[in-house]
């Protein structure tokens, strides 16, 4: 039995609230159970210096956690004077995941930065961030299309979403919360497109190595879960009143 009482293939309750931020070109508050992440997409009419005059744009991400996103207060990284390795690794993952489904040439010489701020953490912050970041990015492109800057569906080639899976108490389970994640025998994060393409897999055996058969079970769970998340993304985008 999982601590939450969920079935092995049952995700937490997932929701998206578009247009959460008044000022951002695109924004989404995404919730995976008690993990809540605010994703805001900001447009700049410039690209990094190394991309100048290259005829294409850039999509990048930044990630951070509020001091009381967890049970104990964490010191702000800004006050420490540098980002931690975990933060850098996660924001690079988010950026890679988004760029996997973006036509950078169709974007033009512009940069979109998606900020993912964890308001409350209960496991799976990076997977929630990726899934919500896609919605914020799509709304940013919709904002641009309304101003005849781009064709959103030309820039964004597919959906992308992410989910965690792992082996907990000897069982393969999906969408680990903190209690499961902290005690999992194997922990993995899967990033996939709407078409089922694999963008990235991060998997670690915390104790005993896991088998190829167990990995394929986790991959199957992730594929089904990400398919459900993509359908949720489509549904929330079809609600024009939500933006």
UniProtKB/TrEMBL annotation:
> What EC number(s) does the entry state?
2.7.7.56
Which positions does UniProt annotate for phosphate binding?
A: 86, 124-126
Key words, A-Z: Nucleotidyltransferase, RNA-binding, rRNA processing, Transferase, tRNA processing, tRNA-binding
Q: Which residues form the Exoribonuclease phosphorolytic domain?
A: 10-140, 160-222
Q: Please name the top-level EC class of this enzyme.
A: transferase
What catalytic activity does the UniProt entry give for this protein?
A: tRNA(n+1) + phosphate = tRNA(n) + a ribonucleoside 5'-diphosphate
A Pfam family (short name) is: RNase_PH_C
Q: What HAMAP family does the record tag this protein with?
A: RNase_PH (MF_00564)
Described function: Phosphorolytic 3'-5' exoribonuclease that plays an important role in tRNA 3'-end maturation. Removes nucleotide residues following the 3'-CCA terminus of tRNAs; can also add nucleotides to the ends of RNA molecules by using nucleoside diphosphates as substrates, but this may not be physiologically important. Probably plays a role in initiation of 16S rRNA degradation (leading to ribosome degradation) during starvation.
Assembly mode: Homohexameric ring arranged as a trimer of dimers.
For this chain, the family text in UniProt reads: Belongs to the RNase PH family.
Name it: Ribonuclease PH
Q: Which organism is it from?
A: Pseudohoeflea coraliihabitans
């Amino acid at each position: 039995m999982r601590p939450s009482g969920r079935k092995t293939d049952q995700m937490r309750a997932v929701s998206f609230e578009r247009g959460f931020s008044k000022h951002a070109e695109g924004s989404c508050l995404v919730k995976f159970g008690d993990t809540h992440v605010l994703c805001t997409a900001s447009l700049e009419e410039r690209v990094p210096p190394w991309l100048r005059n290259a005829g294409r744009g850039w999509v990048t991400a930044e990630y951070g956690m509020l001091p009381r996103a967890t049970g104990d207060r964490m010191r702000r990284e800004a006050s420490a004077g540098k980002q931690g390795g975990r933060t850098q690794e996660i924001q690079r993952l988010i950026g890679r995941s988004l760029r996997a489904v973006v036509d950078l040439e169709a974007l033009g010489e512009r940069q979109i930065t998606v900020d993912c701020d964890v308001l409350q953490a209960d496991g799976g912050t990076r997977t929630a961030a990726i899934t919500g970041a896609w919605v914020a990015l799509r709304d940013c492109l919709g904002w641009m299309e309304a101003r005849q800057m781009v064709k959103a569906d030309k820039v964004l080639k597919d959906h992308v979403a992410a989910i965690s899976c792992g082996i907990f108490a000897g069982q393969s389970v999906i969408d680990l919360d903190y209690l499961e994640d902290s005690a999992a025998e194997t922990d993995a994060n899967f990033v996939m497109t709407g078409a089922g393409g694999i963008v990235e897999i991060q998997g670690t055996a915390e104790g005993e190595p896991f088998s190829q058969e167990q990995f394929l079970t986790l991959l199957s769970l992730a594929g089904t879960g990400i398919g459900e998340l993509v359908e949720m993304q489509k549904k929330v985008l079809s609600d024009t009143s939500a933006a």
